[in-house]
Amino acid sequence: MDRDQALEALRERILAFATLRASKDLAEDLAQDVLVVLHDKYARVTELTELVPLAFQILRFKMLDFHRKALRRGEYNQTSIDDLPLADPGDDPAVLLDRRRRVDRLLGAIDRLGERCRELFRLKLEGASFPDIQRLMGQRSINTIYTWDLRCRKQLLQLMGGNWE
Asked: What topology does CATH give the domain 106-159?
Protein backbone atom coordinates (compact mmCIF):
# COMPACT_ATOMS: atom_id res chain seq x y z
CA MET A 1 0.00 0.00 0.00
CA ASP A 2 1.56 3.30 -1.06
CA ARG A 3 1.33 6.57 0.90
CA ASP A 4 -1.66 7.99 -1.05
CA GLN A 5 -3.75 4.88 -0.47
CA ALA A 6 -2.75 4.87 3.20
CA LEU A 7 -3.75 8.54 3.56
CA GLU A 8 -7.09 7.87 1.86
CA ALA A 9 -7.87 5.01 4.25
CA LEU A 10 -6.63 7.11 7.15
CA ARG A 11 -8.86 9.98 6.07
CA GLU A 12 -11.94 7.78 6.42
CA ARG A 13 -10.93 6.70 9.93
CA ILE A 14 -10.14 10.30 10.95
CA LEU A 15 -13.47 11.49 9.55
CA ALA A 16 -15.39 8.76 11.38
CA PHE A 17 -13.65 9.59 14.67
CA ALA A 18 -14.17 13.35 14.30
CA THR A 19 -17.84 12.92 13.29
CA LEU A 20 -18.53 11.18 16.60
CA ARG A 21 -17.43 14.31 18.46
CA ALA A 22 -18.37 17.17 16.14
CA SER A 23 -20.69 18.08 13.28
CA LYS A 24 -20.14 16.58 9.84
CA ASP A 25 -18.86 19.86 8.36
CA LEU A 26 -16.44 20.44 11.21
CA ALA A 27 -15.27 16.82 11.05
CA GLU A 28 -14.47 17.20 7.36
CA ASP A 29 -12.57 20.42 8.03
CA LEU A 30 -10.59 18.77 10.81
CA ALA A 31 -9.78 15.74 8.65
CA GLN A 32 -8.60 18.04 5.87
CA ASP A 33 -6.41 19.99 8.31
CA VAL A 34 -4.86 16.78 9.64
CA LEU A 35 -4.06 15.57 6.14
CA VAL A 36 -2.49 18.93 5.26
CA VAL A 37 -0.25 18.75 8.33
CA LEU A 38 0.70 15.16 7.54
CA HIS A 39 1.53 16.10 3.95
CA ASP A 40 3.47 19.27 4.77
CA LYS A 41 5.34 18.41 7.95
CA TYR A 42 5.46 14.62 8.05
CA ALA A 43 6.06 13.63 4.44
CA ARG A 44 8.90 11.33 5.51
CA VAL A 45 6.50 9.15 7.59
CA THR A 46 5.24 6.38 5.32
CA GLU A 47 4.57 3.42 7.59
CA LEU A 48 0.91 2.95 8.48
CA THR A 49 1.87 1.92 12.02
CA GLU A 50 3.46 5.35 12.48
CA LEU A 51 0.90 7.35 10.49
CA VAL A 52 -2.20 6.25 12.43
CA PRO A 53 -1.09 7.33 15.93
CA LEU A 54 0.47 10.51 14.52
CA ALA A 55 -2.70 11.42 12.62
CA PHE A 56 -4.94 10.84 15.64
CA GLN A 57 -2.61 12.84 17.88
CA ILE A 58 -2.78 15.76 15.40
CA LEU A 59 -6.57 15.34 15.24
CA ARG A 60 -6.87 15.52 19.03
CA PHE A 61 -4.78 18.69 19.06
CA LYS A 62 -6.90 20.22 16.31
CA MET A 63 -10.13 19.33 18.13
CA LEU A 64 -8.84 20.80 21.40
CA ASP A 65 -7.78 23.93 19.55
CA PHE A 66 -11.24 24.26 18.00
CA HIS A 67 -12.99 23.81 21.36
CA ARG A 68 -10.65 26.30 23.03
CA LYS A 69 -11.40 28.90 20.34
CA ALA A 70 -15.14 28.26 20.55
CA LEU A 71 -15.04 28.63 24.33
CA ARG A 72 -13.06 31.87 24.07
CA ARG A 73 -15.58 33.26 21.57
CA GLY A 74 -18.47 32.27 23.82
CA GLU A 75 -20.11 29.99 21.27
CA TYR A 76 -21.18 27.45 23.90
CA ASN A 77 -23.20 29.81 26.08
CA GLN A 78 -24.89 32.03 23.54
CA THR A 79 -28.55 32.80 24.12
CA SER A 80 -31.12 33.31 21.44
CA ILE A 81 -32.13 36.88 20.73
CA ASP A 82 -35.75 35.79 21.15
CA ASP A 83 -35.04 34.70 24.74
CA LEU A 84 -33.73 38.12 25.80
CA PRO A 85 -36.22 40.48 27.46
CA LEU A 86 -37.12 43.70 25.74
CA ALA A 87 -35.60 46.83 27.23
CA ASP A 88 -38.00 49.15 28.97
CA PRO A 89 -37.38 52.70 27.72
CA GLY A 90 -38.84 54.30 30.83
CA ASP A 91 -37.76 54.18 34.44
CA ASP A 92 -39.32 51.89 36.97
CA PRO A 93 -42.29 53.55 38.74
CA ALA A 94 -40.59 52.99 42.11
CA VAL A 95 -37.49 54.82 40.87
CA LEU A 96 -39.62 57.69 39.58
CA LEU A 97 -41.45 57.93 42.91
CA ASP A 98 -38.18 57.87 44.85
CA ARG A 99 -36.71 60.59 42.63
CA ARG A 100 -39.84 62.72 43.00
CA ARG A 101 -39.71 62.42 46.80
CA ARG A 102 -36.03 63.43 46.85
CA VAL A 103 -36.76 66.47 44.69
CA ASP A 104 -39.65 67.47 46.97
CA ARG A 105 -37.42 67.12 50.05
CA LEU A 106 -34.70 69.17 48.36
CA LEU A 107 -37.09 71.95 47.35
CA GLY A 108 -38.59 72.04 50.85
CA ALA A 109 -35.14 72.28 52.41
CA ILE A 110 -34.09 75.04 50.00
CA ASP A 111 -37.21 77.02 50.91
CA ARG A 112 -36.15 76.93 54.58
CA LEU A 113 -32.65 78.25 53.80
CA GLY A 114 -31.75 81.88 54.28
CA GLU A 115 -31.81 84.37 51.43
CA ARG A 116 -28.01 84.44 51.04
CA CYS A 117 -27.80 80.63 50.70
CA ARG A 118 -30.65 80.52 48.17
CA GLU A 119 -28.94 83.27 46.14
CA LEU A 120 -25.59 81.43 46.29
CA PHE A 121 -27.19 78.16 45.11
CA ARG A 122 -29.08 79.98 42.35
CA LEU A 123 -25.86 81.52 41.02
CA LYS A 124 -24.04 78.17 41.19
CA LEU A 125 -26.88 76.43 39.32
CA GLU A 126 -26.74 79.11 36.64
CA GLY A 127 -23.08 78.19 36.11
CA ALA A 128 -21.39 81.18 37.73
CA SER A 129 -17.85 80.60 38.95
CA PHE A 130 -16.77 81.55 42.46
CA PRO A 131 -15.06 84.77 41.26
CA ASP A 132 -18.28 85.69 39.41
CA ILE A 133 -20.34 84.99 42.53
CA GLN A 134 -17.91 87.11 44.56
CA ARG A 135 -18.41 90.03 42.19
CA LEU A 136 -22.20 89.60 41.94
CA MET A 137 -22.64 89.36 45.71
CA GLY A 138 -20.35 92.35 46.31
CA GLN A 139 -17.76 90.63 48.49
CA ARG A 140 -14.11 91.68 48.65
CA SER A 141 -12.69 88.24 49.53
CA ILE A 142 -13.33 85.04 47.59
CA ASN A 143 -12.68 83.09 50.80
CA THR A 144 -15.91 84.55 52.17
CA ILE A 145 -17.78 82.96 49.24
CA TYR A 146 -16.05 79.61 49.88
CA THR A 147 -17.04 79.77 53.56
CA TRP A 148 -20.64 80.67 52.75
CA ASP A 149 -20.79 77.81 50.25
CA LEU A 150 -19.56 75.29 52.81
CA ARG A 151 -21.93 76.53 55.49
CA CYS A 152 -24.91 76.60 53.11
CA ARG A 153 -24.24 73.04 51.93
CA LYS A 154 -23.97 71.84 55.54
CA GLN A 155 -27.20 73.62 56.45
CA LEU A 156 -28.98 72.13 53.41
CA LEU A 157 -27.78 68.65 54.32
CA GLN A 158 -29.01 69.12 57.88
CA LEU A 159 -32.42 70.32 56.65
CA MET A 160 -32.67 67.23 54.44
CA GLY A 161 -32.24 64.95 57.42
CA GLY A 162 -28.50 64.30 57.29
CA ASN A 163 -28.27 62.51 53.93
CA TRP A 164 -28.79 63.34 50.27
CA GLU A 165 -30.83 60.22 49.52
From this structure: Arc Repressor Mutant, subunit A (1.10.10)
